[in-house]
Design a protein that fits this description.
homodimer; Nucleotidyltransferase, domain 5; 5-stranded mixed β-sheet; 13 strands; 39% helix; kinase (chains A, B); ROK (chains A, B)
Amino acid sequence: MTDGPGDGEQLVVALDVGGTGMKCALVRPDGSVAHAERHPTDAGRGPDAVVETVLAVAEGLADRARAAGSTPVACGVAVPGVVDEAAGVAVWSANVGFRDVPLRKLVGARLGLPAVLGHDVRVGGIAEARLGAGRDARHVLFVAIGTGIAAAHVVAGSAAVGAHGAAGEIGHILVRPDGPRCGCGRPGCLEAVSSASAIARRYAELADATTQAGPPGVGTAAPPAGAATRPAGTAVSAAEVAGRAAAGEELAGQVWREAVEALADGLATGQALYDVDTMVIGGGLARAGEQLLGPLRATLHERMTFHREPRLVAAALGDEAGCLGAALLALDSLERR
Amino acid sequence: MTDGPGDGEQLVVALDVGGTGMKCALVRPDGSVAHAERHPTDAGRGPDAVVETVLAVAEGLADRARAAGSTPVACGVAVPGVVDEAAGVAVWSANVGFRDVPLRKLVGARLGLPAVLGHDVRVGGIAEARLGAGRDARHVLFVAIGTGIAAAHVVAGSAAVGAHGAAGEIGHILVRPDGPRCGCGRPGCLEAVSSASAIARRYAELADATTQAGPPGVGTAAPPAGAATRPAGTAVSAAEVAGRAAAGEELAGQVWREAVEALADGLATGQALYDVDTMVIGGGLARAGEQLLGPLRATLHERMTFHREPRLVAAALGDEAGCLGAALLALDSLERR
């Protein structure tokens, strides 16, 4: 994939800082990757240590570019949580431990280069819309489904940021008023029903209930297949739930169906408000591929009445989208200077 | 309000074509109105006759401008329904009877002026955002609540149109999965719970049920106040429901509360996806003023968790917003030429 920085090339230093790891690269103006590396975030060390790693890794990448005769021209950094892109501040990133970190200023000062700070899902959406699965569409909604659910609305290659850097929070729209309580405190958010963690939680709940109660009136009979294969309380991941559902296990099928239906409701709401050409589904849950996209497409189709149905496709850039998007954001900032 | 076209002024011809009436004006580049007039749409005559009236009224306004020594420089027309602004076609306007009417071309040809076609709620949102209740905000959501519910997301004075001219359909987002069926065919849309027509319908249903059944176990007792004041089946408007709720009638209070709660859910979803500074509430239901906005603000407040709460204000331009917005859209098109 990467062919090394070339002599005389202009390159962007790009970092996507996540809760567990950092994806880092030197990226050309056409979006191709000259060099890529990964580092652990090790957030437990505290925010100061993480910031120092970010700065050291960025500096190392710039040095590597110069050593090869290339010119680093800018640096883009993506972080999760609430990001004030205009101010360049990581307002709140729970899983990285950042709170009001002026990361743009710190990176710019250390590297002596123009720097930008972006939101991981928004820059991921920019990358998917320009270089990935949405590259033929002008209006794209990128939806990342993992531990949480978030979206980026990208029109003509630019992602909507919102008035307070919080646009695209599709994980926190109401889909099930009587549904489970979300981490945000409200009941029935999409994230509380259809995220990978919600699917795993729901499966565990139902399996435990089945194991403990047994089928009505046959308390001593063998528990059904889903519960029989594991002791109560053992964690089963969303990917395993998908696998069991595909293998015909009834309980897993029910949990998967519930999640897909709520997700279709959420996407239908997104389409009503944004009206896009293409929805790009990314994040860990999208690795289920057509097992997710097939039923999701069919269920979304049922929900479209007078609206035009968006094309529903899997993300193409995998977990490199954030790093590529950080580079694109940095390149955009150079154009605007 | 209007002071007549002046000698040497540049003016825009603007028309907002609704199901029952057309609001028409000559508008200055600063948004002030030089002359205003209204005409019945009389949609029952069929689309050809309505189009002819639109063209004749527009021509009459241009002539009036010229007669006063002013120069008509462009024409903006707003229509409801599905509008392809890029193509200038009224794709589908049920209450006006338009289907695939190339209104921009027709108006431009008749007047010999640059013409634009806009969506009534989107241009209304532009007007409220630039000249009305949202004029101090950069990110505005204009929500029009009447027979239906629709929104316009306006950033820096421009309204998002979407990939197919259908952005902002907040009336058709899911808020009550077990709720009443919407006109669009899906159950539980916001419009099916919180529009003026939904409020009137819900009140009638509950009042009829109460009248027919009577309070449990006291079939011969006097029916409650709401039902007592009218025979079953009589239409009570949303405005009357608001009035009765304010007067302390229990049934009306319940219906009003249900509508406000669903509306707050819908606005919370809008805030999660758009992240605006200010929400401007317009349309017929907004005439209830603080009786709507007070509880709506309180209920929306409860729904905000990590999101910043938008300012919630009543629309300032009344039913002139669409006509003013059509003029602004025409002025914008001149700037881009």
